[in-house]
Amino acid sequence: MNIERILLISLLKSTREGLVSKEIVKKDAKLLSENVEDLLRKLQNDGLVYLRKDIVEADSMQRLKLAVRAISLGADIENVSSFLQWKEFENIAAVAFERNGYTVTKNLRFKHVRQRWEIDILGFKEPIVLCVDCKHWHRGMSPSSIKKIVEDQVKRTSALAESLPNPTIRFEFASWNFAKFVPAVLSLVTGRFKFYENVPIVSVIQLQDFLSELPAYVDSLKHFSTCSSSKLNICS
User: Fold this and answer.
1) How confident is the chain (236 residues) per 10-residue block, as mean pLDDT?
2) Does domain 3-84 have CATH number 1.10.10.10?
3) Cis (ω within 30 of 0) for the bond into 183?
């Protein structure tokens, strides 16, 4: 039994709404009081929580770090992510990208054909630009809902590729000779579908494997290619 992992999960659960008393954390963790006190002091020394008398506090960045540490200690990534707010979920996904060698941009907003677009997360690893839509995912979601989610993300990804070169979008792929823009949907839980019309639907728990394997099978996925380092155009 890893008592630190247990405490980290309890902290993620109990600090979702802000400040929490030590007693609530202890009750949820079901650990000995002295163990909890020692671990809380350790976490404070590591900058992961604030302690004020009998109160525990963790800001959004600290909660993200708590989640990452819990996962590193063997906690289930899907279980950990379920205790995060939606923006925190985006952040932990970004951490997974960075650990796999991707440069990350979040919440990209741009204009194309008189329409405003937004993409939740973009991961850059030459020649791949992974364009991710983060969704609350329900296991019972209907095929028609999945179809709409995927089609919308394909439109966003296509719009981004078609909008280049765009002076308002400055990313490292502008210097690449070639880029492949890949639409994807990221969810908290595993759904019935892993792909829809060659667009990957990836749960957080699958994200690590997906990112490590992506370069090998990117050509089999839906994607939009651009070429020419001096002027990115859609390749024929």
Assistant:
1) 91 92 93 92 95 91 86 82 78 82 91 91 93 72 85 96 78 79 84 84 82 92 78 50
2) yes
3) no
